[in-house]
Amino acid sequence: MVISSPESVLEGKYPAKAHARRVVDHIRGKLPDATGVLYVEGRMTKLLEDNDEPEHFRQRRFFYYLTGCELADCYFLYDIASDKSTLFIPHQPGQRHLERPPVSPAEALAKYDVDDVKFTTDVSDHITFLGFDNKNFGALKEAVEVCRVVKDDYELALMQKANNISAVGHKLVLERVRAAKNEQELQAAFLAASVSQGAKNQSYSSIVASGRAAATLHYVRNDLPLEGKLNLLLDAGAEWSCYASDITRTFPISGKFSKESREIYDIVLRMQEECIAMLKDGVLWDDVHYRAHEVAVEGLLALGILKGDKKAILDARTSVAFFPHGLGHYLGMDTHDTGGNPNYEDKDTMFRYLRVRGRLPAGSVITVEPGIYFCNFIIEPYLKDSVHSQYIDAAVLERYWDVGGVRIEDNLIITSSGAENMTTAIKDADELKRSSARNKRAPVSSIDSPETLWIPEVIKRNTARGLQVLRPQE
Ligand code: GLY
Ligand code: MN
Ligand code: MN
């Protein structure tokens, strides 16, 4: 069920009350006699260290799940016996309200799916449950983590909205890649597309990696020149009302794939397609991840980068040298969402970094993000280890370092009979080529880059547009 019009679903309230009931059901499944209250604190306003400016505010996800409230300095209480929820919002008489006007209880009650709203001053300043005999701090956290795995329609609509916004950003970057000079111009284009559509926050820091930099999985520099590089890997996702999207595309910077990068692209796309085809309610994610490795090995054997017996290579885990991360993770309010039960201590290197272990339920959202990378820090030890080096043809591998890394990442809703893809950003190799090639002369932005601002014809053009041009000091 792809949500074709998320906006219409989002006209209602965030279903906080239903979430509270689900959480209690889960707790009661484990502790049948559980009674009393659920109590959660939201994120408090925090100042920067040694400064009076507030830190960037990010609502606590456990709190948002039970309230749908993005305000700072709030508390939430849910009385299990009476099924009554109360939101406590800050009362700040005499404050200057520099960031936003005060929210009244009546306004909050109209906006959020709770039964009552009071001021936080209606409870003691320093609430503590430590003195209570009958308390359980672990049960609520565990229950919310598990409940968050299966999304309701409202949550799916939020995620679809985030995905739609990100698709526009990915398209913009694709259209500008040929005219851009460096990675940061493209990051700026993605952020501009997000913010201008109302998405102020990103789900995570964008990865904008050109050429060999794409082999660094969590690349953060985003500031290298594009000239002379083969591909751009863009892993970027906007957030919408605390819900994430997480999308990766890899495409040729020149508009034309090299032979080697097209070969790797085709393998990764096949890894993704075959894995998506396996998805449905109850599928074992470990099996899907394994299938991605099988397709990778088949592809790398066909290219001659790997040599030998497919099963022996898989058993030796040699493909982990090229695909060193998990196939994907749950997605929701957090980019790496809760409930995946990873085992980072697993002795099996193929599964150690898999963020979800076990079966996927219908209604969960998972990323499918296979990749093949040519990262010398990761591959070198394999080349030096005789268990693995017998399966790697170093001479053939030599031709592929410039491919850097290819990853393709979509966001999938698991259904009873299959999966629905929320991600619409282009990934067909020929279409990618056409879209980037078409825009050879597209300006990077309506304002020219700083290095070119002072060139006479740029000055003339910008003056005609009414833009003020500042000349560098002579
Ligand atoms: N963008 C982070 C991830 O793909 O896991
Ligand atoms: Mn991801
Ligand atoms: Mn990602």
UniProtKB/TrEMBL annotation:
SUPFAM superfamilies documented for this protein: Creatinase/aminopeptidase, Creatinase/prolidase N-terminal domain
InterPro entries per record: Aminopep_P_N, Creatin/AminoP/Spt16_N, Creatinase/aminopeptidase-like, Pept_M24, X-Pro_dipept-like
Catalytic activity: Release of any N-terminal amino acid, including proline, that is linked to proline, even from a dipeptide or tripeptide
Keyword line: Aminopeptidase, Hydrolase, Manganese, Metal-binding, Metalloprotease, Protease
Alphabetical list of Gene3D superfamilies matching this protein: Creatinase/methionine aminopeptidase superfamily
Database matches in CDD domains: Prolidase
Cofactor(s) needed for function: Mn(2+)
Annotated ranges, domain Aminopeptidase P N-terminal: 14-138
First-tier enzyme category under EC: hydrolase
Biological processes per GO annotation: proteolysis
EC numbers on record: 3.4.11.9
Membership in a protein family: Belongs to the peptidase M24B family.
The protein's name: Xaa-Pro aminopeptidase
Organism this protein belongs to: Parascedosporium putredinis
